[in-house]
Specification:
The protein is α+β, with helices and mostly antiparallel strands and 148 residues long. It contains four helices and seven strands. Helices cover 30% and strands 34% of the residues.
Length: 148
């Protein structure tokens, strides 16, 4: 597995992976993914195996000294193979290089596997946002200090 930067030709594949990873109302529209990727304060990492995209992560800077994980998606057959870990390592290293103090994300209250994954990486639940997702589901806000 290797990580590389986003290419414009990746968008359709990323959209398909996102649709497969998350239910309607949690997954993004193609136009939303494109906007997140194009934003001037964002970075996108692509995980590939044998030139096949198997996962990706989009992060951005929020202007208050924090990074934000917009989404992390790993194709189902590649889960539990270290792809998510590699993507998160890359995003956290990027945030540290940029001198950001904190990294945050949101995850669905029902997504217990994601919560466990993030908690094992040192993320703490700091609150909830009711109706965060278009399907009405509540999100946990989770944060990790990048200092020290």
């Amino acid at each position: 597995m290797q990580l590389r930067s986003y290419r414009q030709s990746d968008l359709e594949t990323l959209y398909r992976i996102d649709q497969a990873c998350f239910p309607p109302g949690v997954s993004y529209l193609r136009s939303e993914l494109a906007a997140f990727i194009r934003h001037r304060s964002s970075a996108t990492w692509i995980a590939e195996e044998n030139q096949e995209i198997i996962g990706f992560l989009i992060a951005d800077r929020d202007g208050r000294g924090a990074a934000h994980i917009v989404t992390i998606d790993v194709a189902e057959v590649w889960r539990r193979h270290g792809i998510g870990k590699a993507l998160m390592d890359a995003a956290e290293a990027w945030a540290r290089r940029d001198g950001l103090r904190l990294i945050r994300l949101e995850t669905a209250q029902s997504n217990l596997a994601a919560q466990a994954f993030y908690q094992a990486r040192g993320y703490l639940k700091v609150g909830t946002i009711g109706g965060y997702y278009a399907n009405g589901e509540t999100a946990w806000v989770m944060v990790k200090s990048l200092s020290g």
